[in-house]
Amino acid sequence: MTSYLKFKTLLTGYRPYRLLQAAFDAGVFDCVGEEAVAADVLCRKVGWDEAFGCRALSALVVLGLLEASPTGFCLSKEGALFFGTGAPHPMGGTLDFEKRLVDSWDLLGQTLKTGERVYAASEKSEAEYKKDLAQYIDAMDEAARIRAAELWQLVKPDTDQGRFVELGFGSGAYSLSFLEKHSGWTGALADLQDVVGFFAEKRKHHPAFSRIGLSCVNLLDDPWDLSGCEGANLLLLSNLVHCQGDVETLGIVRRAAGLLAQGGTLVVHDFYRDRGEAGGMYDLHMMLNTYNGKVYTVGEMRAMVEEAGLSFAGDISLPSGSCAVLARKA
Predict the structure, then answer these.
(1) pLDDT at residue 99, rounded to an integer
(2) What is the DSSP string of 38-92?
(3) Closest to 60 measured CA to CA, from 89, 44, 82, 86
(4) What is the pLDDT of residues 298-311, one digit of tens each?
(5) Cβ contacts of 163 within 8 Å, gap of 6 or more
(6) Cβ contacts of residue 198 below 8 Å, gap of 6+?
(7) Measured between alpha carbons, how far is 45 from 26 in angstroms, rounded to an integer?
(8) C-beta of residue 238 within 8 angstroms of C-beta of residue 166
């Protein structure tokens, strides 16, 4: 890619997103599959003007999400990964959630001037909060399933048996993936009470669920009451440390280190500012959408795990853009 094409891609990056969102909202991906659907039929089904709609469908072909044939349009091989019946990596929840994040990015300039978060969500009823929490967890789960497979392909335990702990586990995708892969391990998971309840109800039929103990905790509290998570041979903090600032994060890392068994490993999986564009952009995302969240560099996280009394054991970049910092308890 030439410098100009890279700049042009940055400049017009909103265009493919807007097309993708419009097609998703209209139901295009629900109406197509492996068999081609005639353009006029497809436009009629989704409520699009045929002439304009055909141009949008052709643009989806250019993006690689649809394929065109003499008989109409169908999902491409790439599109079938994320849409349609049986998609291995469905992204509908993510697209639904992403729409809610655009407003905060419209306030980037004002946020940079004021030096504090400007965008704030409105007050929610308990029912609205639980609905939003479920939507958030489902959206995060879609990406977590992909990254979990990547993470556990690269981070492997030294023994066939052990105790796996995850703090701030969200949908539980990382824990379930690990425990499914390592049947000799038991798990202990901790998160906020509402998250624990959501997980217990939604994942109770998962094959690994019977090997998991659950605890409720606010990870910003000091101290924790997490006796059920002590003696961890492998402890995961995934997509967690970016949610708060330096002081709070160091406290979490220190308390997590205290839960490790001798020889145990802490894995801090997240986006890092010095590991590609994803980390830099996610740092701004935290600036806009959290009170004091930030994305750290690998060096900053290394300093934190060492201050917590652990030995830095390296970092591993994942194919999808995140990174894992590893540290061990001597």
Answers:
(1) 87
(2) -HHHHHHHHT--HHHHHHHHHHHHHTTSEEEETTEEEE-TTGGGTSSTT-SS--H
(3) 82
(4) 999 999 999 999 99
(5) 185, 186, 187, 188, 231, 232, 233, 234, 261
(6) 133, 134, 137
(7) 9
(8) yes
